[in-house]
Amino acid sequence: MRFRLTPRETSFYELFATAADNVLSGSKLLMELLGSDAATRVEIAERMRAAEHAGDDATHAIFHRLNSSFITPFDREDIYRLASTLDDIMDFMEEAVDLVVLYEIDELPKGVDQQIEVLCRAAELTAEAMPRLRTMEQLSEYWIEVNRLENQADRIHRKLLAHLFNGTYEAIEVMKLKQVVDVLEEAADAFETVANTVETIVVKES
């Protein structure tokens, strides 16, 4: 680690941990969506919307602290990117749930459960990793595993698209389901961006 002569604003660590914990809560709501009935899905969507608003609050708190801090624990652009991408993950998960409710999708295709399982695991790893930003230690396994999970998510996504276009579904249903699986894939991509940002931070600070 580089030796610093100046003090650092440490509250960012708690703010990032809060944001990541909220992402983890959102991933658990996604898991609840599987196998739920229409009425339960509406309730899940309301809870997800509240979680997304909490994520916005966490992001705004980070940006406010960033704008008011003269000294930051690591580069400002990395703080901004990390906060923004954590917020993106929540937005994507909330959008997926909302689409399922708005489109009145009765049954999600096989493979969506695998997408959500990958997102839940990535969320767990991210929530575990954020507190370790304080020491910058034992983080390499985190970004390696999240990158592996994103590759797994890519394969699941491709198989889902192949399934959707194999003639089983009506064209309008394909359009609805494709939007859902695509936004879940965007969430997986965003998890990878978070992990890559953490790697960049660690490399810069080492």
From TrEMBL:
Protein name in the entry: DUF47 family protein
Organism of this sequence: Streptomyces millisiae
What family does this belong to? Belongs to the UPF0111 family.
Entry's InterPro entries? PhoU-like_sf, Put_Phosphate_transp_reg, UPF0111_domain
Q: Which Pfam families match?
A: PhoU_div (PF01865)
| Gene3D superfamilies the record matches | Phosphate transport system protein phou homolog 2, domain 2
